[in-house]
Amino acid sequence: MSIEMQHMRQTKRKPNIRISQTDHSRLTAIASSSMTENPEVSEELLDELDRAKVVADGSIAAKVVQMGSTVTYKASTNDTKTVKLVFPGEADITQGKVSILTPIGTALIGLSIGQSISWTARNGRSHELTIHDVIHPLNVDQQPISEKSVRPSNE
């Protein structure tokens, strides 16, 4: 393989993601049951679930996007947006609630602060986003964790 092809493969590689066992089970069921009405997004969600590292419930770090998380990200347009990732029946874009069964929702799940991902909108346009803050759904009173405040452990 040429060096150019290796570079292209590395730049297209998706970031590692983590998903809790419960979210993984629920999202697999939702994606499978939505295959007829929404095949493209359902297939993309199943692909994301297949590549995710599934971890025990309660062991997802606060900096990881999961169902119910409020996420601030910077889009490829340089706009900074804050949304809450929700199940399909809870979606309401006027309230900033984005369904997991949308291209952006599927792109967000499992990402950590500082990670970026490319995704394709329903209109076929490619976008990229970078996670800046995450508020864990179980800690709604917490302050956002900015990428500047996340420090590697010395342990």
Task: Give a verbal description of the structure.
- The protein has 155 residues and is an alpha/beta fold.
- 27% of the residues lie in helices and 24% in strands.
- It has 4 helices and 7 strands.
- The strands form 2 sheets. It has a 5-stranded mixed β-sheet with strand order 5-4-3-7-6.
- α2 packs antiparallel against α3.
- It is globular, with a radius of gyration of 16 Å.
Order of helices and strands: HEHHEEEEHEE
Strand segment count? 7
Percent helix among the residues?
25-40%
The rounded distance between the terminal residues' Cα atoms is 38 Å
Strand order of the largest sheet: 5-4-3-7-6
Mean pLDDT reading: 84
Number of helices: 4
* Low-pLDDT ranges: 1-10, 140-155
Question: What's the overall geometry?
Answer: globular
Rg, alpha carbons:
16 Å
Supply the helix-strand structural class: alpha/beta
Sheet having the most strands: 5 strands, mixed
Task: Give the percentage of residues in beta strands.
Answer: 15-25%
Summarize the structure.
The chain has 155 residues and is α/β, with parallel strands linked by helices.
